[in-house]
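Table S2 (text version). Query chain:
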Amino acid sequence: MVTRVSESNHDLAPLLERIAAALDRLAPPAPAPPDFAAADAFVWHPEGRRLDPVPAVSRLPLALLQGIALQRDQLLANTRRFAAGLPANNALLWGARGMGKSSLVKAVHGALAAEMPGRLKLVEINREDIGSLPVLLNLLRRAPVRVILFCDDLSFDQADASYKSLKAVLEGGIEGRPDTVVFYATSNRRHLMPRDMIDNERSSAIIPGESVEEKVSLSDRFGLWLGFHPCNQEIFLAIVEGYADAYGLDLPRPRLRAEAHEWAITRGARSGRVAWQFIQDLAGRLGVAIG
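Corresponding structure-token output:
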């Protein structure tokens, strides 16, 4: 009986080797290491575990961002320390829509990338791909550069548990965040979760305080909080005038302000985004191409 088993195992060995070889051929190739010299900014694609370079980032010059001087100075100082190899905080930019949160992140990176060529990279991760963040951080852990990991419009809904993995990655995990990576996120919500979600947890939990604390503690992982608030009319008009001057839109100031004011009334809002939309409309009417 022992002889038969041995002979049977011996006969199976070539078959198992062929199966293993076939599986090796079917397996996807290991992802190539990212070429950080290819660009200053990249987009993360988890399905292929790859970082695609972005040749030209869509951003405004830092000098054109009006009405957010305090936020600009704080984020610029934090990022400059990080780029220089000094300790820096993760940053949460939260608040009103269209007030320049994501524009500020991209503009700060652009300014410092020009100031320190080849040293500071921007990697964008989509909100839907937060679950792949540990994989991305393992890839960036070996990067020879310093990386701002950026997630725009970050928020979580009732059934979404991926915030737990984000908490562990930002602070508290065994490996922790690499020293060469800092995480910047923008959100309309201060605690990254809707108020009704927090209220539901408070009303249904056995110990309401503990459940709510677990939800809102995610935002505590960000050492730097920068609030963005709706702008008043003067700031709105200052933003419009700054754009008009930068792009050479030749229109008398009283008319420029009157048309911008009318545009804001029509839209029912005043923000940096609304100002930019007005400038695009104005440039089109004047036949001026803007970048």
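Notes on Table S2: The radius of gyration is 25 Å. The first strand starts at residue 41 and ends at 45.
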